[in-house]
Amino acid sequence: MKRHLVYGRYGADDVVAIPTRDDELATQFTLLTRQNRLAHGVGAVLDDLLKVGVFPSAIGVDLLVFAAHVQAADTRVSRQSESQDSWTREIRLVVPVTDPETWIKATKTIKRALDFLTGDLWTIEFRSMPEKMPKILPTGTLPLQGIIFDEVSLFSGGLDSLIGAIDLLEKGKTPLLVSHAGESVTSTAQANCLKLLRNNYTTNQFAQLRLWMNLEGVNVKNSAHEMTMRARSFLFFATGVCASTGFGKPITLKVPENGLIALNVPLDPLRLGSHSTRTTHPFYIARWNELLKILGIPVNIENPYWDMTKGEMARDCSNKALLETIVPHSMSCSHPTEATRHHLPPQHCGYCLPCIIRRAALTKGFGAGVDKTTYMLDDLAARTLDSTRAEGVQIRSFQYAIHRLNMRPQLAINLIHLSGSLSDGTRKQQASLADVYKRGLDEVDILLTGVRTQAK
Description:
By secondary structure, the protein is an alpha/beta fold. It is built from 16 helices and 11 strands. It has helices at 42-51, 58-76, 79-82, 100-104, 107-118, 159-170, 184-200, 232-244, 259-263, 282-295, 310-315, 320-326, 353-366, 390-407, 412-415, 427-447; strands at residues 3-9, 24-30, 90-97, 121-128, 151-154, 175-181, 207-212, 251-254, 299-302, 385-386, 453-454. It has a 5-stranded parallel beta sheet, with helices on both faces. The mean pLDDT is 94.
């Protein structure tokens, strides 16, 4: 087990000493290309914003650069070899920013957010940028003509973000849809969904901003790359906030996510900790809003579907006919490339947690047999599924959770706290979350009627 330091450098003139502790392994994170542009995809985002007349603030760019540090550390420090328990890492970041005093006030909030999100122990430090700095921040004014955005919404290529985009466009909004491109399957889903949205909303104005974080060449000595990527949503949120700072007015950043996934209550006692992701959990979003307030950024992050199940989102979508058409092109699966091992093109597996919730939701929203998505495991009830293998693990866990709640419905108000604190919400809001948890499991229960699992 090793403690790790990741520190950013702005070019050859950035020579300030970064003290390294005796028990730390230090990794330099180069922030500029040879052409003195922001590296790792950040500069490309600023270029794309410039094309649509959006000029983010200096602190907005600082936030995106900070998020790049987080992403680099999260994906380059192996949990297996660099932690005591094969999960919890100890990571210190030292990040150059334009106004260290403001950022230092936010370190406690940032640490709470990152510790909660990734399950690691983070130490956050800031320092001043070097005096000799190339110009990295584009400047200008808002366009007099062209797209004047009035909304920003995260757009992952999944079903929830697709519904979020449709609902905004049906209201006549002009959204900037912010995407984080990862694997090619996700990028393809985003592109296909966006194309179909453009074909339908020919008189609406909207655009996509996509960050492709390129960390090629960034490596930590003697450490394999880490594939859990629990900090990915920090980068996703930061991209949306950075863009929002260029609007010249207060903005609400929409994070479309159904309440069941946002809570992500562990399905069984074995799914605490590393098995419970928290990418849109209410506690995490609350810490982001706390951070933005400290930094003086006039952006508020909101999940407009926090009290709805995925099925209710589909059922109440403002244009259900269009949604039904685009649904097969969206991507919800947690490992779509698994199909390639079976000599099939990348597709939904049909049995991971997101696939199960998606299938249940589309049954709720459109009725049985309407979902045209291709699933590798198409008929869940055709045979008994092995609960010791991937095909049956999540289904068996859902069956356990559904049975537990059916036996003791009053447990819901306690179970929703297992994945994280809900202290930011009122009792009424917590009651609503407990109810959406129950309704979400009810949707899955209907899907799993007649599905059998057994350890083989």
